[in-house]
Each structure stands twice: as C-alpha cells, then as structure tokens.
Specification:
The protein contains 14 helices and 2 strands. The protein is mainly α.
C-alpha cells in the first residue's frame, strides 16, 4: 500500500515537472536567443578596421547610468561606433527580424514551404521602384530617405495593393489565387526591371542595391521606420494563434470560427509592411525570410506563439553576423550581404535538414 502511494506521488511529481518544463521552455528559448543576439551585436560593433573591445562597447552603452564603468575608449572610438557601426548593427537587427517574421507568417498564410517575404510581389515592386529611381539620377531626400529608398518602399506597397486587387474574388481572398497573382505580377515587374537595367548607365549601383547593403542607413531613417516595424511585429504576434489555425486549412479554420478573409488580409498587410520597410533599409536581401523560418521550425516547433519571436531573434542575429562577415572577409572591400546570406544560409539549412533525417514536417 505504501509502495503504491509512493509510486503515485512520484508519478504526480514527474508529471508536474514535465508540465513546468513545457511552460518554461518558450521563455528559456527566447532568453537564450536574446543573449545570443546581444553577444553578436556587441562583437559586431567592436569588429572592423579599428578594433574596439567588448568592454569598451559595453562601457559606452552604460556611461549614461549614475554608476558606470571607467572610461577606457577614445573620442574617435565613440564617433566610429555612434555614427557608423551602431546604426548599421541596428539596421541589421531590424531587417533580419522583419524578413524572418514576414517569411514565417507568409509560409503559414499560404501553407507553402517555399513562401518568402517577396511572394506577393513586394520584392519585385521594390526592385522596380529602386531601379527607376537610380536610372533617373535625381538626388531627393525626405525624412532622411533617398529617392531610391522611397521608390522601393512605394513600389513594394503598390505591388501588394495590385496583387490583393487581382486576387480578391467575390469578397473572398483565396490563398491559391493570391499566390498565383503574386507570381504573375512578380514575373512581369522583374521583366520590366531587367529591361531598364539593360538600357541604364547605372548598372553597378543597381546591382549593388539589388544584392543588399546595410551601410547607408541613418539614425533618422531608423527613428522613422521603427514605429512601423514595431506595430507590424506586434500585430503578427497577436495573430500567432490565428496562424496556427490557418495551418489546418481554410475550411477547417472557418469551421473553428475564424474569419479567414479578414485575418488573411491583416496578415498580408503586416507582412508586406515588414518586407517593404526592410527592403527600403537594406535593399534586396535574399534567403533570410525563407531559411530562418524553416531553421526556427526545425529547432523550436511549429507553434507560432514561439516561432514568430524566435524567428525575429534568430533572423536578427544571423543578419548581424552576415553583415560583419561582409565587412571583414575581404576588407576594405565590402561584400553584398545578399551574397553572404546565400553562402552561409543554404549549407546551414541543409545540415539541419539532414540531421532531422526526414522527420521535418511543415505543419
């Protein structure tokens, strides 16, 4: 009798521990990813032609506190960090997080493992807008943004509106129609972009922008775009449960009481805003929005309440590392970050997929 009671108590304690571990796992995962992002960001700020130690970087960050470390850096070090490296690292964090979250949301929205942030034509529209602006050669700035960045943002949003208008049928927004409309519009816009490139004398700047760069972002641009990115990211996090339901299919989601057309439109808007802002800040950076959601899904599962913030943190860390590698590997020449994302991201994804030995499922 006593033995049976002890066994029952032991089983209850074990079950309680298992439930506690399951509940605490998301916090543990996000905590570790946040720490990784902090470490790589501090390292990236210090690395470059002029090396600045991590202790000096942290000291600069803490110097505004009443109690702070002793000053161990020069005024030149502080200028390098504040004016050049810090904006670049912040841009990398925002671009990586935005593209990764948008990619995860679109993969769930379309139930398509090959979906990326540009699947509804935003990347193609941004590319056309930027190429048109570069071919005009007009030097205009508004809120710290050049005409190229403004044209890219406007082209991305205009393309999203066009695709939405073409895909909407009888008050509904079928995912297949939306997907096909995005492919068709992207193909047309890419053809026009290629035609302009062939006739332009600004081919090198066009290719540089199309391959991505984080070197030209200013503090003003970050202040302007941060509210838009924050609202879009929070919006997707709020809709994480709906993304889980959408993975079940349109009919099942509607049966469970979800307004599929409305939710699909809202997710489309938030994801397109993230993509448009990311493209206006860093240009056309491929693979991040496709690979990071899959890597996060392999590591952390398919629940979007954990998957979305994990994608944001992992994508931000990856982009910081990629930008740092782009500046160091062939210094003083800076490689396009889009080239590095392809070279680093694809093998990493293949290794993770092989380690799962075919156990990976999209939903």
């Amino acid at each position: 009798m006593i033995g049976a009671t002890r066994a029952a108590v032991s089983q209850t304690v074990t079950a309680t521990r298992v439930r506690h571990l399951r509940r605490s796992r998301p916090y543990l995962v996000l905590g570790v990813l946040s720490l990784v992002l902090l470490v790589v960001s501090v390292a990236a700020i210090g690395l470059g032609e002029v090396y600045i130690s991590p202790s000096a970087v942290l000291g600069m960050a803490l110097q505004w506190l009443p109690v702070h470390p002793a000053r161990t850096w020069s005024d030149v070090d502080q200028v390098i960090i504040v004016l050049y490296r810090l904006p670049r690292v912040i841009t990398a964090v925002l671009v990586g997080a935005s593209l990764s979250m948008a990619g995860a949301a679109f993969q769930a929205l379309f139930r398509n493992s090959l979906a990326d942030p540009g699947i509804v034509g935003t990347s193609a529209g941004a590319g056309l807008g930027a190429v048109l602006a570069l071919s005009l050669g007009i030097q205009i700035e508004w809120l710290g943004f050049s005409l190229v960045s403004l044209a890219a943002f406007g082209g991305a949003l205009a393309t999203m509106v066009l695709v939405y208008s073409l895909a909407r049928v009888g008050g509904k927004l079928p995912s297949t129609t939306l997907l096909l409309a995005g492919f068709a519009v992207s193909a047309g816009l890419n053809a026009v972009t290629a035609l302009i490139e062939l006739q332009s004398s600004q081919l090198r700047p066009m290719y540089t922008w199309m391959l991505g760069s984080l070197d030209f972002t200013t503090s003003t641009q970050l202040l302007v775009t941060l509210p838009v990115l924050a609202v879009s990211m929070v919006g997707l996090l709020v809709l994480a449960g709906d993304l889980n339901v959408l993975l079940l299919g349109e009919e099942q989601a509607a049966y469970l009481g979800l307004n599929v057309t409305q939710r699909r439109f809202i997710i489309l808007v938030f994801g397109s805003l993230l993509t448009s802002v990311a493209v206006s800040l860093g240009g056309m950076i491929a693979f991040v929005g496709l690979l990071v959601p899959h890597i996060s899904r392999l590591l952390f599962g398919t629940n979007h309440r954990l998957l979305l913030p994990a994608c944001a943190l992992l994508g931000a860390s990856l982009m910081v590392v990629v930008d740092t590698v782009a500046h160091l590997v062939m210094a003083p020449q800076v490689l396009p970050v889009g080239l590095i994302t392809a070279l680093l991201g694809a093998p990493w994804f293949v290794v993770l997929l092989r380690r799962k030995k075919g156990e990976y499922t999209f939903n």
